[in-house]
Amino acid sequence: MVDTPIGAAGPLPGSEPDEAELYHPHSWLTRYVFSQDAKVIAIQYSGTALAIGLVALVLSWLIRLQLGFPGLFPFLGPAEYYQIITMHGMIMVVYLLTAVFLGGFGNYLIPLMIGARDMVFPYVNMLSYWIYLLAVLVLVASFFAPGGPTGAGWTLYPPQAILSGTPGQEWGIVLMLASLILFIIGFTMGGVNYVVTVLQARAPGMTLMRMPLTIWGIFTATVLALLAFPALFVGAVMMLLDRLLGTSFFMPMIIEAGQRLHYGGGTPILFQHLFWFFGHPEVYIVALPAFGIVSDLISTHARKNIFGYRMMVWAIIAIGGLSFVVWAHHMYVSGMNPYFGFFFATTTLIIAVPTAIKVYNWVLTLWRGDIHLTVPMLFAIAFIVTFLNGGLTGLFLGNVVVDVPLSDTLFVVAHFHMVMGVAPILVIFGGIYHWYPKVTGRMLDERLGLLHFWVTFLGAYLIFFPMHYLGLLGVPRRYFETTGLGFIPASAASLNAFISVVAFVVGAAQVVFVANLIRSLRHGVPAGGNPWHATTLEWQTPDTPPRHGNWGARLPVVYRWPYDYSVPGAAEDFVPQNQPAHAAGAAS
Amino acid sequence: MALVLVLIALGSIAFHVLSPWWWTPIASNWGYIDTTLIITFWITGAVFTILVLFVAYCVARFRHRPGQKASYEPESRRLEGWLTAITAIGVAAMLAPGLAVWAQFVRVPADAAEVEIVAQQWRWSYRLPGADGRLGAAATQFVSDENPLGLDPHDPAGKDDVIVDGDDLHLPLARPVKALLRSFDVVHNFYVPEFRAKMDIIPGMVTYFWFTPTRTGTFEAICNEVCGTNHYAMRGRVVVEPEPQYRSWLDQQKTFSNFAARPERAPRDAAPRRVADGR
Amino acid sequence: MSLVLVYLAGLGAVSGRWLARQHLAAKPWLSAGPLLSRPAAGGSESAARLGLGAFLAVVGLLFALLVAAYGMRVPPGSAGLPLDPRLLWLTTGFLGLASLLLHRAERAAHRGADEDARANLLAAAAASLVFLGGQGLAWRLIWEAGAGRTVDAAGSFFVLITLLHGLHLAGGLAALARIACGAARTGSPAGLVRSIGLCTLYWDALLVIWLVAFGILFRTPWSGLIDVLCRPPA
């Protein structure tokens, strides 16, 4: 690991494509379907995730129908309602957000941004996608199983998850757990791949401190995911055995509807520990790639280097490390030893410090920038606002005693939708508007993009900001209806109706987005190789869209960090990472 | 964009001030929780407003114009150091009162009267100590039609326990209460918004929390952990009244020994039980 | 969960040591110019080893979580499993033997003694199969004795842990079979050394994992140490 000037080291290793190592597709089927090219796999991942995400969007409409206009829709009963909220939550958190950020953006951007030809283990990468697809199909199958999907809430707490008082107890929960187990197996294959690729396949000159923050975010999130998902895996397997073989890992002695069941001795809290040991890092598995991507979007479109790059990297690492010692802040009122509350409240609020530093640095990057309000930039700024809002309400819920009245109310729902729903999804949109030209060679339509942006951003804010106040009032979450509760004033119902209407509009705006994606494939303005004048390697490929192997005959050589925007004395306001020092004029 | 950001910041404040949706009037000693919440609101509200307005200013002031060039400043240790320090102070200002109040929350006063709240799908029952002032032992394995709360029939301390099955819970005003929580089937949560405090109820173990009712009245209790199809319909009521009224109510209640002697009681299935017949 | 936290702290220490050597305090904007930050040697061999290492770290965490769950779920001093532990000492011996034979195969392949390497590989595979058979027998005995669904869940954990461990070993055997077949076909000694090296690492890791699991499921000389790590402080 010695830094050696290039001339002294002779020819650079790996600069010729290694024919034996590189996989070559031979037919249409291996090129587009069973492809081992990370870029194709990325599109497959994103497409599948967006498809299942649309299902979750429709489910959220159904939720809002019931909450906004209770009693108006006879096809929505309590059992259906609980099934819908469960599937909405699970799909959004695991099958959409995790899959898009790591499987989609990760697969596409890691090799291109670090200057690799492909992932290190392309075959394993392909398997990872197909197992993910299988997991999604098993999940979808539960909609059609007898008894329907599980209605246990996305947290799947036992004992209720596998008892007959909860809908979907026969098949739904079994398919749900099987699907999660498959997802984790598939993800582990992909995750090992991403980590090893970042560690081993970087282009010459790409030191860790020259990696774009996008890669830092995705890399750290992948490490977190590799270490967090085993806990969910263990919990899911144990619950599956409880359900199918009659073991009692989580099942105490239970009298259900007057019948004593054959279970005994188990501890439901054990599952909660396992679930949240996964569940909290999961928040950062989604947030860290979003942090990274948004840093690059802001820097590129403000034509300014990201402020405090080193602090940003350290903050990502610190957040990643800390995220493993905060899990029980989801369990303050779970009946665990209350003295744990002191420890977990402290760690949780400490994690706010590196997170706040990241927000400051984004904002300070805008300061004295040259801000181009492109669609990706708008999404990035909207992310700052929503993430800030959601992050600050996290300080309420993390502070153990304030959490007591607020937990399991709509305040929590509003908080996590803002911070890990709206904010990361805004980044996904921003990222898609930003990288679509690289993926397809054409720009997305800007007017449709603006329409999509304004409706989504303002709508989402209007949905979730007022919802906090309903939670403050004490309106519980996961209630099929709140009629008859005297402490909830009638005006809350009109607010709910308003939120529902906005939600329908926001949902409809996503149709505009999908239409834009499809339409611009054919009719988009040709983009050229580097439409945003960005510095990072993926914009310097010889072909757009990049061909298989990414770099043509020679791997790029990296000469500088990824944020050389508006360098004093440089001819242009950006200097690509692979531009040698002498070519950049007087640049440092 | 800048204008919209200003509107968001000011609109959020206006909504906060004007919103008709605010917490329920408190009816317990946990006013400290509200105070901590208000401190948190002030700090986070200030941070939110400042940062959003700053972003709005940047977007307006540094928006691209022909010939404009961004400045080049990789980092400023001093500025970042200050911001980190200020953030740490702000966080500490929220955490310190939070932990202080939590210390009270976990320490139950010695003179707190024990009340047992028993949850099952989807109804509430209660048990109060009888003349001996303590609750007898209980366990899920003793539950039967004659013994709906599963009291240990061999524990003499349980004979005089008062059992409230299918009725409201009454509590005396201004006396600390330690609520012991038990469940036979799944995880529930006992929540009275006006009391602020709540706790999950885990089958197989006894959880607890404490509070002191400070206001008379009838309050709604709800289940606050999704517990099955009729989770939303699992409701109860708590009546807080002055000591004399409470005494006279208590004297009318049935104890465990005369409960067990009378097998015919109100039907257990007061709450809707299953999806099929619930709808 | 202290075992899990200790495990994570160990991983954190390893990655922290590695990160410390990555010049994270460097100011990248000051040092434009080509830097050869990658060791010139490397390539796919170290990538495969690193990949396997990362995978094993994940597998290790999986079993650490299971052992920690055991500590939280099974009451201390619960009655032992209705199974003669000598059966498991025997299977443990076979797994250790398989690991040893793989080491010998690796050394043989390194020397270029292909015949020797192949014989050791076959023997290792056979020993692993005996281990799996023994574990399966124990599994059946426990289940048929009705100990798989008891209130203290010790038998349930035995069933679960041996099942997952066995599946991992079966996956390893499939890889071993592929390697053996490939080696027989191409006879490329360099590739063989590399693949056997990976198998050896995998078997060693599974042996360690099994020893830890064995230690918590049964009374072994090292059980006390594991109890200290995974029981919540009384």
Automatic annotation (TrEMBL), chain A:
Q: What is this protein called?
A: Cytochrome C oxidase
Question: What domain of life does the UniProt record list for this protein's source?
Answer: Bacteria
InterPro entries reported for this sequence:
Cyt_c_oxase-like_su1_dom, Cyt_c_oxase-like_su1_sf, Cyt_C_Oxase_1, Cyt_c_Oxase_su1_BS
Q: Which residues cross the membrane?
A: 40-63, 83-110, 122-145, 173-196, 216-241, 283-299, 311-333, 339-363, 375-398, 410-436, 448-467, 487-513
Q: What is its main location?
A: membrane
Question: What family is this?
Answer: Belongs to the heme-copper respiratory oxidase family.
* GO terms (BP aspect): aerobic respiration; electron transport coupled proton transport; respiratory electron transport chain
**Which GO terms label this protein's molecular function in UniProt?**
cytochrome-c oxidase activity; heme binding
**GO CC terms in record:** membrane
Phylogenetic classification of the source organism = Bacteria, Pseudomonadati, Pseudomonadota, Alphaproteobacteria, Hyphomicrobiales
Q: Where in the cell is it found?
A: Membrane
Taking every annotated instance into account, which residue ranges of this chain make up the domain Cytochrome oxidase subunit I profile? 22-559
UniProt entry tagged with the keyword Iron: yes
**Keyword set, alphabetical order:** Electron transport, Heme, Iron, Membrane, Metal-binding, Respiratory chain, Transmembrane, Transmembrane helix, Transport
- How does the protein associate with the membrane? Multi-pass membrane protein
Automatic annotation (TrEMBL), chain B:
| Gene Ontology CC, one term | membrane
Q: Which GO terms describe its molecular function?
A: copper ion binding; cytochrome-c oxidase activity
Q: Which GO terms describe its biological process?
A: ATP synthesis coupled electron transport
Span-the-membrane segments of this chain are 38-60, 81-103
Reaction(s) catalysed (UniProt annotation): 4 Fe(II)-[cytochrome c] + O2 + 8 H(+)(in) = 4 Fe(III)-[cytochrome c] + 2 H2O + 4 H(+)(out)
EC number(s) in its UniProt entry?
7.1.1.9
Positions of the Cytochrome oxidase subunit II copper A binding domain = 110-252
Cite the entry's keywords alphabetically. Copper, Electron transport, Membrane, Metal-binding, Translocase, Transmembrane, Transmembrane helix, Transport
Where do the record's region annotations for Disordered lie?
258-279
Mode of membrane association? Multi-pass membrane protein
Main enzyme class: translocase
UniProt cross-references to InterPro entries, sorted A to Z: CcO_II, CcO_II-like_C, Copper_CuA, Cupredoxin, Cyt_c_oxidase_su2_TM_sf
Q: Where is the composition biased (Basic and acidic residues)?
A: 262-279
**Location of the protein in the cell:** Membrane
Give the record's family classification: Belongs to the cytochrome c oxidase subunit 2 family.
Name of the protein: cytochrome-c oxidase
Record organism? Methylobacterium tarhaniae
From TrEMBL, chain C:
Q: Which residues form the Heme-copper oxidase subunit III family profile domain?
A: 49-222
Could you state one GO biological process linked to this protein?
aerobic electron transport chain
Read off the Gene3D superfamilies from this record.
Answer: Cytochrome c oxidase, subunit III, four-helix bundle (1.20.120.80)
* GO molecular function terms attached to this record: cytochrome-c oxidase activity
Cellular component, GO annotation: plasma membrane
Tell me yes or no: is Membrane among this UniProt entry's keywords: yes
The organism's place on the tree of life at top rank: Bacteria
Q: Which UniProt keywords apply?
A: Membrane, Transmembrane, Transmembrane helix
Membrane topology according to the record: Multi-pass membrane protein
Tell me where in or outside the cell this protein is found.
Cell membrane; Membrane
* UniProt entry tagged with the keyword Transport: no
Question: Where exactly are the transmembrane stretches of this chain?
Answer: 50-71, 83-102, 122-143, 155-180, 200-218
Q: Which PANTHER family match?
A: CYTOCHROME C OXIDASE, CYTOCHROME C OXIDASE SUBUNIT III
The record's family statement is:
Belongs to the cytochrome c oxidase subunit 3 family.
Task: Please give the name of this protein.
Answer: Cytochrome C oxidase
